[in-house]
Design brief:
The protein has one domain. About 85% of the residues lie in helices and about 0% in strands. It is built from 6 helices and no strands. The termini are far apart.
Length: about 160
């Protein structure tokens, strides 16, 4: 009789262990799906920011002109235009810093990063970015982003 009870207890322990393993597998699947949903939301938010930035830069012909010149030929701008362009471009840089940090933290996939890497590098390598770097305190940006920027610019001898 005691042996039968011990056998039942052993069977109950085995069933409990199996139930725990199944539960952990289920939780793992839930975490993976939650991660995918979070990444999808992050990607959606990034796309919305992309659109908002583009629309704000194209809000007028003057804004579009200043934005373009600040990026490519900042020395062609008047002092007032340079100030205006500096802040518009600063918002764009903050956006690409966010992209970089989200990629670094794994919140956006490698494929999502790859589709935006040319945008990020194009901005970082632009003459306007050099003006921005010269006119700001680097402590306003994440250190790893500044390291990425400096490495990217040095690889292109800027």
């Amino acid at each position: 009789m005691i042996q039968a009870l011990q056998d039942y207890a052993l069977i109950a322990e085995i069933i409990s262990a199996i139930a725990i393993i199944v539960s952990l597998i289920f939780v793992g699947f839930q975490i993976r799906e939650n991660t995918r949903a979070t990444q999808a939301k992050a990607f959606h938010d990034i796309a919305a920011l992309d659109v908002n930035l583009l629309l704000s830069m194209a809000s007028s012909q003057e804004s579009a002109r200043i934005s373009t010149l600040f990026r490519e030929s900042p020395d062609e701008l008047s002092e007032d235009e340079l100030n205006y362009g500096f802040y518009m471009f600063g918002a764009e840089v903050r956006h690409i810093e966010n992209l970089f940090l989200q990629k670094k933290s794994g919140m956006i996939s490698e494929a999502s990063w790859s589709s935006r890497q040319a945008l990020v590098e194009g901005l970082v390598l632009s003459p306007g970015f050099g003006v921005l770097l010269a006119g700001i305190n680097k402590k306003y940006f994440d250190g790893s982003f500044i390291e990425y920027v400096e490495k990217t610019r040095s690889n292109h001898q800027l």
